[in-house]
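BUG: 3D viewer hangs when loading the predicted structure for this chain

Environment: internal workstation, default settings.
Expected: structure renders.
Actual: progress bar stalls at 90%.

Input used:
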Amino acid sequence: KLAVAQRAKNKKRVKAIHAKIKNTRLDLIHKFTAKLVKDNALIVVGDIKSRSFTNSMTNLAKSTYDAGWFELKRQLEYKCKHAGCQLEMVNESYTTQTCSYCHKISDSSPKGRAGLRIRGWRCAECGTWHDRDINAAKNILAVGLDRLAVGIPSV
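C-alpha cells produced before the viewer hung:
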C-alpha cells in the first residue's frame, strides 16, 4: 500500500500509512515490554549503540531504525522502575566472539562486520558449537548476573 501511494505521489496517504506503521510498532513494543516486565524479576540487556549500525557505510541503517531499539530500552527502563523489576544494561563488547562455555575468544569466532554473516561457529578451544545470537545472550546474562553477585550498581 505504501509503495502504491508513493508511486501515485499521494502525500496525504503516504503520511497516513507511515503514521499507522509507527503506531503499530509502538503498540507491539509496549505489549512486548509489558509482558517481559510482568513475567521476570530481572532483565539483562546489552547496551548496544545503534548509531554504529546506522552510519552511511553499512546497509543496516534501515533495519536498525525499524527495530526501535532506543524505544524498547526506554520503555523497559520506566516499566521496570514502576514495577520493581530489576533492569541491568551491560556492555556487550565481544559477547558474540567469547565462548559461553570456556570463556575464551578463539580464532574461529566471528570477528568484525565481515563476521556478521557467520551465524554459527565452533570454539577452537573447547569444541563447543555456538549459534551466534544465543551465545551472545548467554554471555550478556552471565555478565549481568556477575555484576549482581559482586554488587556493581546498575548503569
